[in-house]
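so im writing up the methods section and need the Gfo/Idh/MocA family oxidoreductase record in one place, dumping it here so i stop losing it
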Amino acid sequence: MADILNVVVCGTRFGEHYLAALNCAEHLWSARPAHLPRYRLAGIVARGSARSLALAEKLAVPLYTDVAHLPDDIDIACVVVRSAIVGGDGSALARSLLTKGIHVLQEHPVHPTDILRLRALAAQHGKCYHVNTFYPHLPAGQRFIDYARQSARQRPPAFVEITTSLQLLYSSLDIVCRALGKATPFACSQPLALHAELAEWLADYTSPWPFRAVQGLIGGVPFSLNLQTWLDPDDPDHHSLVMHRIAIGGPEGNVLLANSYGPVVWSHPIYAPDYERDDAQSSYLLAPDHFAESRFNRQPTATIFGKQHGPSLTEAATHDFSLAIHAALDELMQEDAPVHQEHWWQAHGDAWLGIMRAVGPAQLTSRPPPAPPYPDPLAYAKECQT
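--- predicted struct ---
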């Protein structure tokens, strides 16, 4: 494998984050394991919009409007174009690139049947194909997955709790599957029906109902899902009430990904082992030293892993996104990664499609830009420190 691999980015909307990550890659190279390749931005594949032309000029790389025009020294293509299942040309583009003998990293979501076909095509040409769900590779996602995975090795979790939107269900399930190490066995219920009286009241309710409740098993663990099933057809990538909020745990405590970008929080329910005793040693007023000896009473009720707050979008785009994209490229090139196993994306896809079929078509509704939060959370946080 070459020390440095030449990479083209297909698409410049979300693809601009790939461009930024590859253009500023040098600062990441010193921290990279020696067995992993490094990546160089070698061009943009796009239709030739003013945006694409300006980006190519700024980054001093060629703009290709046809895959056929790519030079022979391109090693990897990042396909950051909507796939066929969401009405885009990404899957067809991935097929053309693999046929040309180029490794492909494709942005999610991708239908499991397309993944199966593209993986077979990649194998036929001796190349790698992988789907990037992005969010598991962010620093917060990696912390969450690592803690949950280590915990599961010691003791199987008792529950998974997910709150997300239709747009982010695919990546949410990948985070959960990585944390559990598997997606099967999987089963899910139909969404909880609204009570008749509540449904009647909703006739005068002007906003879409925020979430629908689904329950089932994923990786053999009971899960509860609160899923936002409406989206804005004119702006489908935005207006998620919650992007990723995921908890995994049991009676001993749980780890929570509070937000797509963090923080990651471990917390536990209260357990007082001496609560039912009726002697002097059971009262913390009478025997404070004895009370403090118990680990249930000593450990913090909540602990944050990593930074105390999530990054701003600007901070995330300039730092976390680069880490995530390079981690996804590394995973593409690591043939022994668990997600390259034959069953991984089929099992993930079955879970994703099972939930999508259960909840039915998205409810389409136009939404205004979000209002500023009140009280201002940063100002309120300062007040809490005084």
